[in-house]
Amino acid sequence: MKVKKIFAMTVSMALCIAMCAGCGSTGGSEGGNDTPATTKAPDAAAEGGSTEGGNTDGGSAPASGELIKVGIINNDPNESGYRTANDKDLKEAFSEANGFKADFSYSLKNDEQIAAAQKYIQDEVDYLLLSAADTAGWDTVLKDAQAAGVQVILFDRTIDADPSLYAASVVSDMAKEGQTAVDWLKGQNLGKYEVIHLQGVMGTAAQKGRSQALIDTAASEGWTIVEEQTAEWNAEKAQQIVQSAIDSNKSFNVIYAENDDMAKGAVAALDKANISHGVGKDVIVMGFDCNKWALEELKAGNWNYDGQCNPFQSSYIKDIITKLQNGETIAEKTIIMDEKGFDAATITQEDVDKYGI
Amino acid sequence: MSERALLELRGIYKSFPGVKALQNVDFTLQKGEIHALMGENGAGKSTLIKVFTGVHVKDAGDIFIEGQSVQIRSPKEAQENGISTVYQEISLCPNLSVAENIFIGRGEGKFVNWKENNKKAGELLESLGINVKPTQQLGSCSIAVQQMIAIARAVDMECRVLILDEPTSSLDESEVAKLFKLMRDLKARGVGIIFVTHFLDQVYEVCDRITVLRDGKLVGQYDIETLPRVQLVSKMLGKELDDMADIKNDIPVFENSDQTPVYEGTNLCSTEGISPFDFKIRKGEINGFTGLLGSGRSECVRTIFGADKVTSGTVKVDGREVKITKPIDAMKQGIAYLPEDRKRDGIIGDLSVKDNIILALQVKTGFFKPFSKSEAIEFANEYIKLLDVKTASVNTPIKSLSGGNQQKVILARWLLTHPKYLILDEPTRGIDVGTKVDIQKLMLKLASEGMSVTFISSETDEMLRTCSRLLVMRDRKLVGELTGDQLTQACVMNTIAGGDKNAADK
Amino acid sequence: MPQTNNDAKPANILAGLLKNQLVIPLAALLLLALFNLIADPSFFKITLSQNSNGDPVLNGYLITILDFGSELAILALGMTLVTAASGGQDISVGAAMAISGSVMLRVLCGSDSRAETMQAPIIVAFIISCVVAMLFGAFNGSLVAFFRIQPMVATLILFTAGRSIAAWINHNELPIVKDPGFGYFGNYIPGIPIPTPFFIAVGCFIIMWALLKFTTLSLYVQSVGINEKTSRLNGLNPEFIKLMTYVILGVCVSIAGFIKVSRLSTINYSVIAKDIEMDAILAVALGGNALGGGKFSMGASVLGAYVIQFLTTTLYKFGVSADALPAYKAVVVILLVTMSAPAVREKINALKNKKNAGKQASAAGNA
Description:
The complex is a heterotrimer of chains A (357), B (506) and C (367).
Chain A: H1 2-31, H2 43-51, E1 68-74, H3 81-93, E2 100-106, H4 110-122, E3 127-130, H5 139-147, E4 151-156, E5 168-171, H6 174-187, E6 194-199, H7 205-221, E7 224-230, H8 235-247, E8 254-257, H9 260-272, E9 284-288, H10 292-299, E10 305-307, H11 314-325, E11 334-336, E12 341-343, H12 349-355
Parallel strand pairs in A: 1-2, 1-3, 3-4, 4-5, 5-11, 6-7, 6-8, 8-9, 9-10
Antiparallel strand pairs in A: 10-12
Chain B: E1 5-16, E2 19-30, E3 34-38, H1 45-52, E4 60-65, E5 68-70, H2 75-80, E6 83-86, H3 98-103, H4 114-127, H5 143-156, E7 161-165, H6 173-188, E8 192-196, H7 200-206, E9 209-214, E10 217-223, H8 229-237, H9 243-248, E11 263-270, E12 277-281, E13 286-290, H10 297-305, E14 310-317, E15 320-322, H11 327-332, E16 335-338, H12 342-346, H13 353-365, H14 373-387, H15 403-416, E17 421-425, H16 433-448, E18 452-456, H17 460-466, E19 469-474, E20 477-483, H18 489-497, H19 500-505
Parallel strand pairs in B: 3-8, 3-9, 6-7, 7-8, 13-18, 13-19, 16-17, 17-18
Antiparallel strand pairs in B: 1-2, 1-4, 4-5, 9-10, 11-12, 11-14, 14-15, 19-20
Chain C: H1 2-19, H2 23-39, E1 47-50, E2 56-59, H3 61-86, H4 93-109, H5 122-145, H6 151-169, H7 180-183, H8 196-214, H9 217-226, H10 228-233, H11 238-264, H12 276-286, H13 298-317, H14 325-340, H15 342-366
Antiparallel strand pairs in C: 1-2
């Protein structure tokens, strides 16, 4: 009995700690930024303000009943710089000042995300914003949402479900990102292509899209893939894989890393073995996600290419919500964001400041 | 006689790697007799028992049951032949009910009717005079009752041969009496009982015949009337023995004097539920706590040593007031404590003999002053020699030593700290006669050199032989103090039983 | 007759060797080395070359093993003590490394995660991170020692919350230390061709060796792990000793975390030192130490850690994908656990006895 009690106590303690940590991080990221500019008052809130203007005290802030309720399900913001930027962007956009009442939940696991979605449906949110951990398994929940009149907007990641089940999806086209990068690589007109391919966590949309482009082109152009391994988005693992390739004297002239962290790990291994890399050097280094530090490396000429994966979906999502609130229909369900690829030769400081995350 | 022998073994051999455990041993058990199997530790008693219970398979020899040659290759076969064993450590399930324990594992694939089983168990327990409810959880019964339930289980399995391996070592005297009554009842029913024990008194109280083993060989089989105690002991040890007589004449006479006590405690009390008591001991004195098992005698010495949580009392060592709340406090005052439960509180099983010996002194010496390897070996060898510990080397794990030798190692551990006050709680339990005598002699020697000793033993005669003062406990209270002429078996019994007034009058 | 003597001696030596704990990790190491020798002898080649800064560095798989095995070996030191004293393992070391690494970067970078210069000396940052890691160790240790919670359950708390705490310390930012001097600790000191982590690890071994040699830690920890009650009656304070082992593990965690963040001069909270707790526990097990507490051999644990890195590097060399690595390690675990299971041990002993008996019989026959 006693043991059980103590166990229960510690578990609840652990939860408290976890919560504190969660709250702390929220507070931290908000505190770290200038207060987001209240650009335009959302239409719904403006309407509410005009009809009930006499009753409200301050008038400027919309009454809580008029806020648009949004449930946001995202991956863990600690996962990567991309996710951190993405989470920050969403938090800024869907603030109460902007007329939203947003709830956030984070998980890297599909089942936990589904549980969170069900909770939001029960809470009768107006919109459910979802960046799914896994592509499969969402049909039932989305049907529930539809039955409850909750509009679902996917962001960042697509899922394997009937498009009628969601209102819109704001995504990066990973295949396009990959293709842009591979096209750039093709344009370098190297004499030979010997590529070390560092993959992300297998099965994720980013890995699939970015890998496929390279695999297809390598097959059609006759490039050699020296090494093709997953480093699971992890710099240390990437370093060990490249180290292993160097130790076994494999010859290569391109590092195609599917994110910046892995590219960084690879470069650490190259530096150690005195293999030059970057603009006009022996090995071409390619990364993705446009972390600010990565773009700086690019600008310094240590890396050659970085593909953007746009984390700033909130403006796209807000547009959609505005349209839906006004009763408009969404013409194109899948909205692909603009994404760039940066070449070390042409990148400018403005690019670093603007697109770095 | 042999034509009606219930169990007969002829020419049994059994060897383990490096050890010839049994060589050409014969053993005969008649119907309706209680047969003591005697021998020092390592004489081969346990091996012999394991051979006819099927735990070990004999290398050579024959086993007959009622004249029929049988093969026993597993405990199950032994059971089918009507041989049951009740071990020293209870091997029942404490979390099941009494009835469940009696019937478990014997369902033969049928559905179990617990209601009927409870009823049957109730009848069985009643017929054996065991006063316990069948639905009671086994763990809530006393050890003695658990032991009797184990016997009841064996009886219900229609056993013809019942082996009791050290059944009395954790029982107090009234419980032993109950057990003996049960044994006699079973004997009357024609069950053959093999009784293994270290207690000579008990052997002479209840047994009909004795088989003595020594070094894996048969010494002989005797009728109890024809073998006086001294003879038995000398046969077990393989030499004529005057040691016991020696000790008897050697009671130190200790006169009360004005000398400051080495240890003096007033109003001592711990969380273990004993009434507050006063206690003191002088230089060179041997005294003892006596009383039935569970009377609080161990709790008293644990309080002195700070082994349990001390709740009240003031302590003076050599006249100076000190605080003893933890064992380390007591150790720093030169007090040493050999605990009652060797396995649980005494040995550190996986560690070597050497590490076990140096442990207490090392803790006293301090964290930053470890002994070098050679120092440690020197210490260990010194005491191994002094106490005649039988071990292959100083690096042998202590758990592979026999019980008596483990006890000597723990004694060595405390002697190494050169205590001025040594507490020995049941140092002679479950060890062979030779070692018992050694330990008693050692106590007397230490006391003559000026060490104070407190001694606890379940065998009153041991205490009478060595102590100059006995403190008697009853129901967790200190009820009497006996000295001088009062130190007789009868007087102690009276005091324990509650006739302390009479005792005082004498 | 002298012949029989000669026969007996090697057998005794062999038997003695088999009893030694080092035999398991050594056998595993030899097996791996043999495999690589047959598959590709170039595995053992070591070359001296220059890195991109023009400093000499050694290259080769063996160097890689020594380099990347360091964190694991350092953790194995603390994990061995924790296992011996408390009869359980700390599964939060990976998360605790994230925390101590995060603290370190927070101190070094100050409030600006892209600071051009270090805001504090490395030693100060290290000491602070070390204290934090020790505090978290003490937290785990007190749950185990005073509240008597199963170590795996107690450390589950930090295992779950640790990485979030690490992220919170730096406000979710991913600081980067730009000073190249910080990178020396996880890579190379200019002019010295041997990776720095190896030196740090060796330093830790020496300190641990001294700790075991010049204090009674080893005797105390083993006593408490084997029999707590007896230890208490011999004047030890089992709770304090358990707590101390967790604090020592905290120190190991902070050193390992320091190496990890220094390797890339940055941190990624969710993946730094991921799954390292399992490797550290495996190292202790591979060293033949009882996972239920009691006797331990520090050397065997360290060797076990390098064997695991050897295995990892070998698997990378043969192109086994990183997400399949745990499966191979699982095979090792299964082998170890079954080999140490009492049932299997008995069988092996019985087999040995039979063999010996057979030998003796045949020898007798020959005579």
